[in-house]
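Let's do one together. I've listed all components of the complex below, 1211 residues spread over three lines.
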Amino acid sequence: MEYDKILSEILGRNDFLVVGKNIVRTDALDKALGKARYTADYIPKGTTLLKVYRSTVPHALIKNVDTAEALEVPGVEAIYTGADVTGNNQIGYALPDQPFLNDKKVHFIGDPIALVCARDEYALENAFQKISVEYEELPAMLDIDASLSEDAVYIHEGGNIALTTRIRKGDAEKGFSEADVEVEETYWSPYQEHMYLETEAAYAVPESGKVTVICNGQSPFLVREKVAHVLGWSLNQVRIIQALTGGAFGGKDDQGPVVAAYAAFAATKLGKPVAHVWDRTESVSYSNKRFPARIKYRSGATEEGKVTAVEVDITLECGAYANRAPFWLWRQTAHAAGPYEVDNCSVDGRAVYTNKVYGGSFRGFGDLALHFAAESQMERLAYELDMDPIEFRLRNVLRVGSRTTCDQVLDHSVGIEQCLKAVRDASDWSNHREPVWEGSKVRGYGVGLAYHGISTSRGTPDWSAASILLNQDGSVTYRTGIVEIGQGSPFGHVKIVSEIIGVPPENIRIELPDTDSTLNAKPTHGSRGLMLGGTAAAKAAIRLRENMASCAAELFEIPSERVQLSDGRAYDKENSETSISVRELAEEMYNRGYDPGAYGYFKAPKRFFDPETGLGVNYSVYTFAATVAEVEVDTETGEASVLRVWPAMDCGKAIDPLMVEGQIEGAISQGMGFALMENMELKDGLVINPGFKDYIVPSSMDTPQIEPSIIVEEPYRHGAFGAKGVGEPAIISVVPTITNAIHHATGLWFNAIPVRPWTMYKALKEAEP
Amino acid sequence: MEVSFELNGEPVTVTVEPYVSLLDMLRGEMGVKSVKKGCEQGECGACTLLIDGAPVTSCLVLAPQVEGRHVTTIEGLEKNSLMIDLREAFIENGAVQCGFCTPGMLMSAYALLRDNPHPSMDEVKMGIEGNICRCTGYTKIIEAILDAVERIAPE
Amino acid sequence: MRPLPKFQYHAPKTLAEAVELMNTLDNAKPVIGGTDLVPLLREAACRPSHLVDLNNVAELNYVREEDGFICIGATTTHSQVAASELMRKAPAVVDAVSRIGSPQIRNRGSVAGNLCNASPAADSAPPLLVYDAEVEIVSGDETAIIPLPELFAGPKINSLEPNELVTEIRFPVPPESSSSSFKRIARRKAFTLSMVSAAAYVEMEGGVCTEARVAFGSVAETPIRAPGVEELLAGKELDSQTISDAEEAAKQGVAPITDVRGTAEYRKAMCGVLLRRALNTAVGRLS
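Okay, and this is what the predicted structure of the assembly comes out as:
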C-alpha cells in the first residue's frame, strides 16, 4: 500500500487531526517537572559499582595483568579480565576486531582490560592504583599516514586497512576531458564528540539464568544481542530495558551494547546488581567519536555550469576499531557526488586503523565530512566559472528521474530544488552578493546542500515493528523498539497512531522499549526512527482501526466504511449523532471478540546493491536539505559568528513541524560547533581535553538567529503519511554553509575544520598583500 | 557529620560525610533525582539549583556548605506561578527534547525572570549561558523564556 | 575523575577562628566558592586533609570604601562585586567579574579565590592589577599587605604559606579623571577560559593621558603588567598613532605559549588588539 495516502485512502478524509500540527509532546511535562527518569536515576543506594580499568598506553602487547594486590583492597568485590569471559570475548560491531576485555594487546589509550567491582568509589580508586599491567610497548600509529606507511606496525591482524570501497559510474576521465574547469583539493574533517548531557550508564540485575539491564542506548535488541554474545547465552536470557536517554546522536548506539555488557557480565559473575555510570572524563576520552576523514576531491565542470565528473578518494580514520566503518565509508562512497546528478563518478575509499579512540556513529554518519568536501568543491567550481553559487547548484541538483552517485534512480520524493530556491528567496540571496564591511568586521553569505539516504544501506534488509493494545477502558498502550533519545520519534509514532485510530495522543501511553515485551523495531539510527518505526506503527494502527471500525459498524448497523474515528469516539460519517466513546467501543470489542491488539511489521522495499561496482539502489529514499547562513568575521581577531541561518528540508511529511524545526535548530548548533569551535585534542594518543572546559560546544550566547524552517513536502510512498527521516539531514549541510560564507566574506578557503580564531587570523594575515 | 538545612521549604537534617557534594547528597542520600549529573566540574549546568535563591552548580558545593541555607530544587517550585508560566512556555514552544538539561535550565531561567522580568534577548542568553544544551541549539529555549515573559500575570 | 579526598571540614564563624584553624591544622586549605578547588580535588591535583570553609565568616563579606581604598572582603563573590555601586568607580573590574564563568559560577566564586588560584587566565587579575591592588594576608598573629603581583608565583601557584589566608583585596579609590576597561577573547562567546585578556586604566587631563596602566592575562605564567606599554602612553595624547604604537609595544612585550586555547603568535597579536580596544573604551567612558 502507499503509506503516503493513508489520509485519503484509509481514513477517507482530507483534514488531519494531529499529524502535521504542533502538538505538545506527551513526555515533555515529566521532563520539565524533573520527574523523568534516566538510567542513573534507577540505581539504588549501595549498589556495587563497576569501573573499567583501561590501557594507559596506545599500542602494546599485554604481558601480564596483576590484580592480586588490588583484590585485597577493602571494599573490592571482584576484578574480571578476559580470562573470566566464558562466553565470547568479542564485541566488535561489523568486524570481529574488538575484544570485550583485552588480554592480548591494547590498541588505544583507554582500551578495556579489566572490570573492577567495589562497594564505593574510594575502594575503586584504591584498587585502580594497585593494579599493575606489564606492557610490551609497540610503536604507536598515531595518524593515518603512519598506519599506511611502509614500516607501519599492524594494529590488527591482516593489516591496517579495515576495508575498502569503490564506485565506478560512467567514465570519469572522459568526464574530465569534457570539463572546461577543474578543481582538486584535499579536505580534513576531524573527530567530533557527541557531548550528550547524560553520560553512558547501565544498571544490571541478575537472576538465575537471566540478567536484566536498564541502560541508555539506541537499539535495545542490538544491546541484547551483544550482551548475550559476550555471556554465551540465548537472547531470551537477556532483558534490556532502554531507559529514557539524555541525548545520544549516534554515540549511544555504539556505546550502549558495550556499557550494558560490562554491567551484565559483572552482575552475572558476582550474582548481585551492578551499577556502571561513566563520568564525563571517561565519556569524552573513551567513547566513540565521529570518524575523522581525509577526502581528496577532484571535480570538473563545463562553462555552462554542468558538473561532468568527480573523482573522490576517501581515507577514513577508524581509530582502534572498525566499529561502524564499513557502513560509514560506504555511505560516504555512495553519496560522494553530493545531491547532484553527475554522470561520471569514480570513488575509492579505505578505512584505516590508528592507535587512538575509535570512531563510530554520530549524526550524519559520514555525510558531514563528505558534504564538507563536496559542497566546498561546488563552491570552488562556481567561483572558477564566475557563476552565482546557487545558480550553479540549480543546474546540477538531483530531480525526479535523476541518478545518484551510486546510479540509483530517484523515482519520487526529491525536493532539493524547492529547498534551495526556498532558502535563496527567504535569505534575499541576490541582494547579498557582496560582502559587507563594518569597521573590522565583514559579513558574507554562504549556501550548502545535503542529501542523506535514510536508514541502513547497501541492501541490508530493513524493517520495523510496533504493537498497540487498546485496553478495556479505551486507553491505549503503545510499544515500539524505537528509543526516545530526545528527538521525539516515539511521540511521532503516537501521533500517527492517533491520527488513524482517533484516540487523542495524551491517551496513548508509550512504554519503554523492553526486549521481553517489545517487538524489535531495529535501531534508532540512520534517521529511521520515525520513517521505519512510524510506518510499522501505521500498519499496526490500520489493523486495529479495522477491528474498531468493524465493531462500531456492528453496533451502529452500518457498513464499516461509514465509521469515522476521531476525538476518542467512533462516529457514523453520515450521521454524527450516532457515536460511541472509545471507552465503550473497547469494552464492546472485548466482549464481542474483536481483537483489541494489533501488531505491525513493516519491511522496506527490497533494494539491490552490487558490492563489486558499488552501484545499485542503496537507500530506500533520501531526505534533502539546504541552508543559507550569514556569517560575520572579525578580521582583527579571527572570530567568526554565525548571525543568521535559513534552513529548508524536504522531509516528505512533517508529522510534527515543531519537532522537525527542533531537530534542525539543534543540528545547526552541533554543525556550527564542529565548524568553529569543537576539537578533540590528543597528545600521543591521550585525550587532553576530556571535558566541557576545553572541548568547547556552543553555548546560548553563540546561538544564531535561525529563521523559521521551511518544510518542503515531497511525500515518500513507503513512509507513514509520506514521512522521511529528519535528524541527520539537518546537520549535513551546516559546515560547508558556514565555510562558504566565510569564503564569501573574506576570500579565504578552509579545507579543514574547525576554523578557530587563531586559524582564521593566521590565514587572514597570510592573505594580506 | 550532620547537615541541617531547608530543602524546598522543609527543614531536613542529613548525616553525610563532608567530602560529599551537594549533588551527591541530594541524589544519593536523599533520593532527589531531578538534579542531574552531567560533568561534576561546574561546566554544564545540569545540576543547577538555588541556594538562598541564587542559581549555583550543586556539583561544586560541598554538602556541609548548605548548613542553615535554603536549597530549592525544581520540585520546590512546582507550584510557583512564575515556574508554571516558564514550564508551560517550555513545553508549548518545543524547548524540551531529551530533557536532561531541562531542570537545570528551568532553574536558571526562573532566577533570571524573577530578578529581571523583562529581559532583552541578550539578557536571556546571558542568563542561561551556564546551562549547556546539546539537543535544541537553544533557539526554542530562548523563545520559550521570552514567551514566558508575556504570560506572567501582571501584579 | 576521582572521588573527593576524605578531608575534615571546618566552618569557623569568625576570622580569628579561621586563622587559628589554618595555623594549627596540618595540610589545610581554605575554601569559599570551591569553583576552582573542587575540580582540582576531582583531578587529584591536591589532597588536603582539612578544608576551612570561610563562607560563614561574615566579617569577610563586603565591598566598602575605607581610608581612601576600595576594599573587597575575601568571601565576596563575583556577583556581589559586579552588583556593587561602589565598584562602578572601577569599570574594568565590573567588566571582568560580571562575565567570569557563568551565573552559577559568579554566584559562588569569590574574587579572592580567583586570584589565589593564580591561573594566568584569571579574569579578575588584569583589572585589579591596573588599579594597583594590594592583598591583605593574615596568619597567626601577623597581617601583611603585599602588592597583588606578588601573590602570583607561577601558573596556578600562589605565594601564600600553607597557613596564610587572604582576607581582603583593596585598591586606592581612583580619581574622577580616570577610567578603565577590560577586554577578553575566548573560544566561544560565553563561559570559557580567556585566550587573552587585557585591562587598561587611564587618567586623562586636558586630552593628555597623565597615567596609564596596562595588564594582560593568559600571555605569561602569571597575569602581568606591561610597564613598557605604560611608559609609552604616559604623557601623550591618545591619538591613533600613540595607540597604534602601544599596540605594537604590547605585542613585542609578551611571550605567550601555545596550548589548547590558542597559539603563541595569535596571543601576541591579540594583546595588541585588545589593548587598543580597552584603551578606546576606557577613554570613551570618560567623555
